[in-house]
Amino acid sequence: MATGYLLVMGCLAVGTRLARRPGPRPAAPGHGWAALLRRVGATAAGGYLVLAAVVTGYYFGVARLGGDFLADALTGTARLLALVLPLWLAASWLTERARARRSRTRRSRARRSQPRSRE
């Protein structure tokens, strides 16, 4: 258990250090449905793989179980992903839509507040 805790904390420390590193920032991901589906799909697939690794490690390393328990655990997490993914996609889409609306509103307010030159 301590090893798992140290691994998680180490990953968080490395991620925080990389996020605060000075230098050029990576380009922002694209906009639109393709970019949203790519981000959600990549995050869901990575999350499933991490969850599968944790479940496998627990069943084989801690509980000393295998076989049917492991198969049920992996199919159960796949079912969970199938239930949650459409809801998460909808929430991500609504968030992106609200963010785009806010940025459009800010741009239009900025344009209206600029003094017009008379030429």
Automatic annotation (TrEMBL):
<keyword id="KW-0472">Membrane</keyword>
<keyword id="KW-0812">Transmembrane</keyword>
<feature type="transmembrane region" description="Helical">
    <location>
        <begin position="40"/>
        <end position="61"/>
    </location>
</feature>
<feature type="region of interest" description="Disordered">
    <location>
        <begin position="97"/>
        <end position="119"/>
    </location>
</feature>
<dbReference type="Pfam" id="PF19770">
    <property type="entry name" value="DUF6256"/>
</dbReference>
<dbReference type="InterPro" id="IPR046223">
    <property type="entry name" value="DUF6256"/>
</dbReference>
<keyword id="KW-1133">Transmembrane helix</keyword>
<protein>
    <submittedName>
        <fullName>DUF6256 family protein</fullName>
    </submittedName>
</protein>
<feature type="transmembrane region" description="Helical">
    <location>
        <begin position="73"/>
        <end position="94"/>
    </location>
</feature>
<feature type="compositionally biased region" description="Basic residues">
    <location>
        <begin position="99"/>
        <end position="119"/>
    </location>
</feature>
